[in-house]
């Protein structure tokens, strides 16, 4: 299950992504926002990412104006590896190499066609593991306050 979230700026893109997921039979839960009224991105980020960390959702897809603010907030949640992406290569490799569990998109940066490509790639690409696991473990160690150098 995918969890979707956005602020007001990301709301229109989130709605389009929902239609795209519906058309492809992919299950999701939408934690809001539910209208274009002001809704702060950090709230959406924490709400969605808590569901990933608890295991209720496998991955989060978040939208704000740039994809950046919501990714910064998401990356403050322990266990989240969020990537703001606006190109296919990054969306693919953040799964292959970083085991990203949160994709962040900028509704004021990319169009819905590209967003759908990034969403599909992010959902369908598996982590490569191996030497990349070591690096992901280092990220986790930093998160846990360990010195890794
Ligand atoms: C909201 O106006 C905008 O600042 C927000 O969606 C996002 O772009 C922040 O990074």
Q: In whole angstroms, how far apart are the ends?
A: 37 Å
In quaternary terms, these chains amount to single chain
Mean pLDDT: 98
Biggest sheet record:
5 strands, parallel
Strand content: 5-15%
Q: Report helical residue fraction.
A: 40-55%
Order of helices and strands: EHEHEHEHEHH
Structural class assignment: alpha/beta
Low-confidence stretches: none
Ligand inventory reads:
D-ribose
Strand order of the largest sheet: 2-1-3-5-4
Global morphology: globular
SSE blueprint and pairings:
Elements (H helix, E strand, L loop, with lengths): L1 E5 L4 H13 L4 E3 L10 H14 L4 E6 L3 H7 L7 E3 L3 H9 L5 E5 L5 H13 L6 H13 L6
Parallel strand pairs: 1-2, 1-3, 3-5, 4-5
Helix pairs in contact: 1-5, 2-3, 4-5
The site of D-ribose has 8 residues, from α3.
Plain-language structure description:
This protein has a five-stranded parallel β-sheet, with helices on both faces. The termini are far apart. It is α/β, with parallel strands linked by helices. The chain is built from six helices and five strands, in the order E-H-E-H-E-H-E-H-E-H-H. 46% of the residues lie in helices and 15% in strands. It is globular, with a radius of gyration of 14 Å. The mean pLDDT is 98. D-ribose is lined by residues 7, 9, 41, 64-66, 68-69. D-ribose (RB5) is lined by residues 7, 9, 41, 64-66, 68-69.
């Amino acid at each position: 299950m995918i969890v979707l979230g956005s602020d007001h700026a990301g709301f229109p893109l989130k709605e389009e992504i929902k239609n795209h997921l519906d058309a492809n039979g992919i299950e999701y839960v939408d934690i809001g926002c539910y209208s274009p009224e002001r809704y702060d991105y950090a709230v959406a980020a924490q709400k969605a990412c808590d569901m990933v960390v608890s295991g209720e959702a496998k991955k989060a897809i978040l939208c704000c104006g740039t994809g950046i603010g919501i990714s910064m907030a998401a990356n403050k949640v322990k266990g989240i590896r969020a990537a703001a992406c606006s190109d296919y290569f990054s969306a693919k490799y953040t799964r292959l190499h970083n085991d990203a569990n949160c994709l962040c998109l900028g509704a004021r940066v990319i169009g819905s066609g590209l967003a759908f490509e990034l969403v599909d790639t992010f959902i369908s690409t598996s982590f490569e593991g191996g030497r990349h696991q070591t690096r992901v473990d280092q990220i986790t160690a930093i998160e846990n306050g360990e010195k890794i150098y």
